[in-house]
Write a structure and sequence with these properties.
It is a single chain. By secondary structure, the protein is mostly beta strands. It has four helices and 35 strands. A seven-stranded mixed beta sheet has the order 14-17-19-11-12-16-15, with no helix packed on it. Strands 22-30-29-24-25-26 form a six-stranded mixed beta sheet, with no helix packed on it. A five-stranded mixed beta sheet has the order 5-6-2-1-10, with no helix packed on it. The longest helix is centred in the C-terminal third of the chain and has 22 residues. Among the domains are: 102 residues, Immunoglobulin-like, CATH 2.60.40; 96 residues, Immunoglobulin-like (Sandwich); 148 residues, Immunoglobulin-like (Sandwich). It is elongated and about 125 Å long. The relative contact order is 0.07.
Length: 566
């Protein structure tokens, strides 16, 4: 008898002794039914345990270690109580590459789980029924093998029970007809042949429409479901498929490793990495040079996560340096950044993190690395995945961010991302202070915001073009506080205008026609000057000009040929 049952029996016996009524409370009322009913695999990563006659709860969210699969390489990573009323539990597994495995599931209370019935009884250790496979086969990867064939790798062996090659379709940037003319199976790979010809650099996608009875797995005949726009890896231009990750060809200059690491596209314009840059859960495909990136806003004090996937043709272990720079303006380079995180990895794998942060804009920095898939289509292509957790203590002047990466042979590549990352919010740092001389006077400035400051006299300053400039303040006329009111008083002009306005009503009261008499004033006049005189119209002036011209000509001739005139 297990410890759980012993405990329940003791409680029941105590109740009987207290009440004196034998059988009033029975052991079965508190027992937890064993999880020995339906167990099914619904996908490559999910197994459903269904105990239809038990109402249960998962205290503390369930513990994955309590669930053991008969295949040791498959681990349970999460436990979820899907339906409490009938105790349906979904197990998430780490096995993402096989939809046909049917491991025996064992519940092990020694792992510390609190799976219990509604009455509070804990479940026994249970070896459940064998898993039933109801998971349909799925696509692992699709690769262009030749100019007219695509190899599609499945999660399990399949057979063709119906359908036709026309159930597949190929589209994208394609030099020809994307119609599929035939299909063949060499498990777990389906090879389809296209009527058109594919070339290096083509971006190809494949679709499949389920006919109702077409491609099925060999075990329980689960049918391949419809899928669209599955991206095909283009390996055309490589000697064989292994060259895609281990290319060591020379470029004619004696260089045997001239390919730079990439977060997206290689030198042949092939996309190797999907979603190479992710910031706070927002991924983007990195382009070859400049990557358009929607402006992301981060608040001062907020924890941020940046994830980068870096591919090198010699493998992740060949990457030796990575930089992530913030706050760049248009036209600036990475070296201009005042907030940069750098990761260096030596040949023994020792990682060193260097932070360039003269203005104390960064805080709480943690850098970690691991190896993972560069994309979801080909598990053979591995990337170094760099995760940078950090927060900002202050805003940055500009928003563009950039990355720089190089390998052991110093092949390097930089990428810039705009609009980038904008940091907002009140700085956690003390206000910056500056001392300087302006127009012979010493000023002490204290920053009050981005590019603005105030001096000790209350004057405001703006930071423009690399210097602090005092804001212009319009001079105001100083009021005259003198008790003597004369023409030199500051308010005399206003007083004069006011008296003139007050005099008009009084004038009209005594002489209503006085203002009308001003209409008899003569029109304003001007002087009429005579017409303009032209000097060339004067014969006397013309004659003088001719004589002077003749005289000048003689002088010029003498200067040019003095011998002739001797």
């Amino acid at each position: 008898m297990s410890s759980v049952k012993s405990k329940i029996y003791f409680i029941a016996l105590t109740a009987v002794m207290i009440t004196g009524l034998s059988g009033f409370i029975t052991q079965d009322a508190y027992a937890f039914d064993n999880l020995d009913t339906a167990v099914t695999r619904t996908s490559a990563t999910t197994i459903v345990v269904d105990s239809t006659d038990t109402t249960c709860t998962l205290v503390s969210g369930g513990i994955p270690a309590d669930w053991v699969l008969s295949t040791p390489t498959i681990a349970v990573t999460a436990v979820e109580l899907t339906t409490a009323a009938t105790c349906i539990i979904t197990l998430t597994t780490a096995d993402a590459g096989d939809t046909s495995s049917t491991p025996l599931v064992t519940y092990n209370t020694e792992g510390g789980s609190n799976l219990s019935s509604s009455a509070g009884a804990t479940a026994d250790d249970t070896a459940m029924a064998a898993t039933t496979d109801v998971a349909p086969p799925t696509v692992v990867s699709a690769i262009i093998a030749t100019n007219t064939t695509i190899e599609i790798t499945m999660t399990e062996d399949i057979i063709a029970t119906g359908g036709a090659a026309g159930d597949f379709n190929v589209d994208g940037i394609f030099n020809g007809v994307g119609t599929v003319s035939s299909q063949s199976i060499a498990n777990p790979v389906i090879t389809i042949t296209t009527l058109g010809t594919m070339q290096e650099g083509d971006q190809i996608f494949v679709d499949y429409t389920q006919p109702g009875s077409g491609l099925e797995d060999t075990g329980t005949l689960n049918e391949l479901a419809t899928f669209t726009n599955f991206q095909v890896i283009n390996r055309l231009g490589y000697a064989d498929s292994s060259d895609f990750t281990t290319d060591s060809s020379s470029n004619g200059s004696g260089c045997t490793d001239c390919e730079e690491p990439t977060l997206g596209i290689n030198s042949n314009n092939q996309r190797i990495v999907e979603n190479g840059f992710t910031y706070n859960g927002k991924p983007t495909n990195v382009e070859r040079y400049f990557t358009p990136y929607p402006l992301i806003t981060s608040t001062v004090g907020q924890q941020n996560t940046a994830i980068f996937k870096i591919y090198d043709d010699k493998g992740p272990e060949d990457i030796t340096h990575f930089s992530f720079a913030y706050g760049l303006a248009k036209g600036q380079i990475i070296a201009d950044s005042k907030a940069m995180i750098e990761l260096d990895i030596d040949h023994e794998g020792t990682e060193t993190v260097t932070v360039t942060d003269p203005e104390n804009a960064l805080d709480n920095i943690k850098v970690s690395t691991k190896t993972g898939n560069c994309n979801v289509y080909d598990s053979d292509i591995q990337c170094l995945i760099v995760t940078i957790n950090h927060r900002f203590r202050a805003s940055l002047d500009f928003n563009i961010v950039a990355t720089d990466v190089w390998d052991m042979n110093r092949n390097s590549w930089q990428n810039y991302y705009n609009h980038g990352i904008e940091v907002t919010g009140k700085s956690l740092n003390p206000a910056k202070e500056y001392d300087g001389i302006n127009a012979g006077h010493i000023y002490h400035l204290t920053e009050t915001g981005k590019n603005i400051a105030v001096d000790e006299f209350g004057g405001t300053w703006s930071f423009q073009y690399g210097i602090w400039e005092q804001d212009y303040v319009m001079n105001e006329r100083v009021a005259d506080t003198s008790s003597v009111f004369n023409r030199n008083h500051s308010d005399f002009a206003d007083y004069k205008e006011l008296q003139a306005q007050n005099a008009i009503p009084q004038l009209l009261e005594y002489c209503p026609s006085c203002l009308d008499s001003f209409t008899d004033f003569d029109e304003s006049f001007g002087y009429q000057y005579s017409n303009e005189l032209n000097a060339l119209d004067n014969p006397e002036i013309i004659q003088k000009m001719l004589l002077e011209n003749e005289r000048a000509q003689k002088i010029m001739n003498y200067l040019l040929d003095p011998v002739k005139y001797r």
